[in-house]
Design a protein that fits this description.
- This protein is mainly α and about 475 residues long.
- The chain has 3 domains: about 25-115, Fumarase C, Chain B, domain 1 (Orthogonal Bundle), CATH 1.10.275.10; about 120-215 and about 225-370, Fumarase/aspartase (Central domain) (Fumarase C, Chain A, domain 2, Up-down Bundle); about 370-470, Ribonucleotide Reductase Protein R1, domain 1 (Orthogonal Bundle), CATH 1.10.40.30.
- Helices cover about 60% and strands about 5% of the residues.
- The protein contains 19 helices and 6 strands.
- The protein has helices at about 25-30, 35-40, 40-60, 65-80, 95-105, 120-155, 175-200, 220-225, 235-240, 245-270, 300-320, 335-360, 365-370, 380-390, 395-410, 420-425, 435, 440-445, 455-470, and strands spanning about 160-165, 170-175, 205, 230, 280, 360-365.
- Helix 8 links the parallel strand 3 and strand 4 (about 230).
- Helix 3 (about 40-60) packs across helix 6 (about 120-155).
- It is elongated.
- Bound molecules: arginine (ARG).
- Arginine binds near residues 121, 124 and 330.
- It is an enzyme of class 4 (lyase).
- One of its GO terms (biological process) is L-arginine biosynthetic process via ornithine.
């Protein structure tokens, strides 16, 4: 036990000042408590408290011995937690009280000094920021893993063709690598966006006190520096009230989910009998309990489905904040489950999609190359051909529209037209029209910057590789 003469009363009923005479109604205690979920913040809470204690020692509020005792008590709690021996119950209300009570149990009266010049309001703000900072770094790593998987798949499919769609109607053929690399670019923005969010997450509210600062001569820059924060909040009210960073994170997370959900949707229909562009491995798909022939794309379906709850958390946080007067209000306790679930969902979806790309999906090059050979997605190229021979584009466009119509009626594709038929349509057509409308040529010719031409795609791959290695 501690070093105090009489054992300290560390029960929750002793948490409040002498102003209180009776304990909380049990149902209200349950309703009020956050320990059931904010135990997730335990490590951050300990880290934050260690820095706070060291700062108190630096400015002379704690002696070095008192500080050492507190720090080693906090580290004991960390060890107990890792060993599964720290399991605070509902009577602790939240993780901050749970730690403080355990500290007092462990080191006695010395533990009662830790909360000097601090409030749970700046404490919880510090914890959430430390938590989010760590999680954002992990999610950014997961984005990089996802990008590697996209990159490696794209590398194998520069010259595999895939129909490109607008309005989900066949539009122009693409290099499959080009299609995949669109997701590389999208997630590159996600990675950058999270880096930007991090700048505002990594600001210290510690020392804002309950709302107004503190009478003690604290050094906020020192505790911020110990915790690796880039700066401090310069207004104590803002410091304890601000959850912009949480909303920004939920917003960046929602955009990541939009991207994963769109890829999911594409994979789902690519795997359908109607498309047959990909097959899914047994390791990443499931069967039906009744239809023995089924192989279901559960992974992308779940990712698409989970997108909704991440959007929900963003909405929840926005609504939670909009009517709050300054400064701390208990409403803010609701930020935690939203953030924890957002982190778990985004990380889980990124991981599952990365595995799906690495080993769960096989593109069918024969089927894909054949698909682009059976449609009118080379019609623009016929118009471009004529435009290159001096026919104004709009005129060429109208003429090719007519060709498509008559070909459809004759159940023919453009490549099936005879030279005589081409000539009849326009005297400018020559033998080289056949080469010009072959799918590989159609793709290769789109050599404008950022286009699907093979040369462009190869340099896009180089760009991707250098971003991955940076
Ligand atoms: N459990 C609280 C939360 O998560 C901690 C802060 C409590 N502050 C207060 N003034 N009641 O927000």
């Amino acid at each position: 036990m501690g070093n105090s003469s009489s054992p300290p009363d560390t029960s929750a009923s002793q948490t409040w000042s002498q102003r209180f005479e009776s304990a909380l109604h049990p149902a209200i205690a349950q309703f009020n408590a956050s320990i059931g979920f904010d135990i997730t913040l335990l490590e951050c809470d300990l880290t934050g408290s260690v820095a706070h204690a060291k700062m108190l020692a630096k400015v002379g509020i704690l002696s070095d011995t008192e500080c050492d005792q507190i720090v080693s008590g906090l580290e004991t709690i960390r060890r107990e937690y890792h060993e599964g021996k720290f399991n605070p119950g509902i009577d602790e209300e939240d993780v901050h009280f749970a730690v403080e009570h355990r500290l007092i149990e462990l080191i006695g009266d010395g533990g009662k000094k830790l909360h000097t010049a601090r409030s749970r309001n700046d404490q919880v703000g510090t914890d959430v920021r430390l938590y989010l900072r760590g999680q954002i770094e992990q999610i950014r790593q997961r984005i990089k893993d996802f990008q590697w998987a996209i990159f490696e798949l794209a590398q194998q499919h520069v010259e595999t063709l895939i129909p490109g769609y607008t309005h989900l109607q066949r539009a122009q053929p693409l290099s499959l690598a080009h299609h995949l690399l669109a997701y590389f670019e999208m997630t590159q923005r996600d990675w950058e966006r999270l880096g930007d969010v991090l700048k505002r997450v990594n600001i210290s509210p510690l020392g804002s006190g309950a709302l107004a600062g503190t009478t003690f001569p604290i050094d906020r820059h020192y505790s911020a520096e110990l915790l690796g924060f880039d700066d401090i909040y310069y207004n104590s009210l803002d410091g304890v009230s601000d959850r912009d960073f949480a909303i920004e994170f939920a917003s960046a997370a929602s955009i990541i989910m939009v991207h994963l959900s769109r890829l999911s949707e594409e994979i789902i229909f690519w795997a359908s009998e109607e498309f047959r562009f990909v097959t899914l491995s047994d390791t990443c798909s499931t069967g039906s309990s009744i239809m023995p022939q089924k192989k279901n794309p559960d992974v992308p379906e779940l990712v698409r489905g989970k997108t909704g709850r991440v959007f929900g958390h963003l909405q929840g946080l926005l609504v939670m904040m909009k009517g709050l007067p300054l400064a701390y209000n208990k409403d803010l306790q609701e930020d935690k489950e939203a953030l924890f679930d957002t982190v778990a969902t985004v990380s889980g979806c990124l991981e599952a999609m990365t595995i799906l790309l690495q080993e769960g999906i096989t593109f069918m090059p024969k089927r894909l190359n054949q698909a682009v050979d059976e449609d009118f997605s080379n019609a623009t190229d016929v118009a471009d051909y004529l435009a290159n021979k001096g026919v104004p584009f709009r005129e060429a466009y109208n003429l090719v529209g007519k060709v498509v119509k008559t070909s459809l009626a004759a159940d023919k594709l453009l490549k099936d037209l005879t030279m005589a038929e081409w000539k009849e349509l326009h005297p400018a057509f020559e033998e080289d029209i056949y080469a010009a409308i072959a799918p590989a040529q159609v793709v290769s010719a789109r050599n404008s910057a950022g286009g699907t031409g093979f040369k462009q795609v190869r340099s896009a791959l180089k760009r991707a590789e250098s971003l991955l290695e940076a």
